[in-house]
Amino acid sequence: MTDSEDRADALFHALSDRTRRDILRRVLAGEHSVSTLAASYGMSFAAVQKHVAVLERAGLLTKRRVGREALATGDVTAVRSVASLLDELEAVWRGRIDRIDLLLAQDPDQPTPPTTGS
């Protein structure tokens, strides 16, 4: 497993939970204290802290301390890297669809060209 695959695992794991996605939406819109975030959910402060920690480990948000508060901000670059990963997967899928379209458009009396790659 490569570092980039480990990073992808961390990103998609972090985004696999609806509470974490909601927290990410909020911190991408603006900096929030973790205690303010915790007030928005029907769960304990510790549970929200754990969600924030998962997002932070994945690199989707950063935290900074101001006095006793931890302020969280979303990382747009990390979100773009998720979009890039999804674009890469879509390109594989589109390539397969293009090859199917090509095969369907071929004259059935012509020999089939050899395929390459996945």
TrEMBL record:
GO terms for molecular function: DNA-binding transcription factor activity. It comes from the Bacteria. Residues 1-94 form the HTH arsR-type domain. This is ArsR family transcriptional regulator. It comes from Lapillicoccus jejuensis.
